Every structure is written in structure tokens, then in C-alpha cells.
Amino acid sequence: MDEDDLSRVLKAAGDTTRRRILTLLVQEGALRVTALAAHFDMSLNSVSKHIKVLEEAGLVTRRTMGREHFIAAELEPLKLTEAWFAQLKSIWDLRLAALENLLVAKDEDNE
Fold first, then answer.
1. How many CB atoms within 10 Å of residue 35?
2. How many domains does the chain have?
3. pLDDT tens-place string over residues 20-57
4. Residue 17: CB atoms within 10 Å
5. Residue 109: enclosing H or E segment and its boundaries?
């Protein structure tokens, strides 16, 4: 996965409805699109558009059985965001440690 993949995942997960869809799929397992749409106060077409964004980000997969479409969560792409957040956290941890060292040194100088 590259930076574009990270952007797609963050964009897809940045919408409340799409996060609710993902949460529901993780809790319930694969669901028919119509069953999934029944959980939302919007048209089937609107839910399908949200599913398409999640598919493009790799966060869900679609399996077709006859005329039914089943959607399942794919959480592997979230590992990319986890790694990115961990990288940001380590940078901030270093900065906070440096600030703490600076403040301790100032306190020692004032004593």
C-alpha cells in the first residue's frame, strides 16, 4: 500500500455512515446489501454509493450469489492507518520528551 491507498482509506473512513457500515459488518459479519441498507435511514442507492467508496478503499469486499450481493468487512487496509498513526505518535513522543528535558533543565538552572 502506498500514500494513495492511505488517502483512500482515510477518506472512506472519514464519513460517519461509512464507519457505521464497517462497524456493523465487523459485528454482524457479511450482510446482503438490502439487509445492510435496512439499518440506515437512506435509500438503497445512497447506501450502495457508500459501499462503493468502501470497496474502492479495500475496506469491504462484495460477493455475489445469484441476484444477492453480500458485503463483508476487510480490515487489512486499516493496518496502513495504524502504522501511520504510530509513526505520528512516535514523532510526538520524541518532541514531548525533548520539551520535558528542556523544562527540567530550566528548572535546574533556576535552582
1. 14
2. 1
3. 999 999 999 999 999 999 999 999 999 999 999 999 99
4. 15
5. helix 78-110
CB 56 within 8 A of CB 86: no
CATH code of 76's domain:
1.10.10.10
Residue pointed to by grid coordinates 457500515? 21
User: Domain range spanning residue 42?
Assistant: 3-110
* Cα–Cα dist 75/80, whole Å: 10
**E strands, 1-111, in order:** 31-32, 60-65, 68-73
- 9 close to 58: Cβ distance less than 8 angstroms: yes
The confidence band for 1, taking pLDDT boundaries of 50, 70 and 90, is: low
pLDDT digits (tens, 9 = 90+) for 56-101: 999 999 999 999 999 999 988 988 888 888 888 889 988 898 888 8
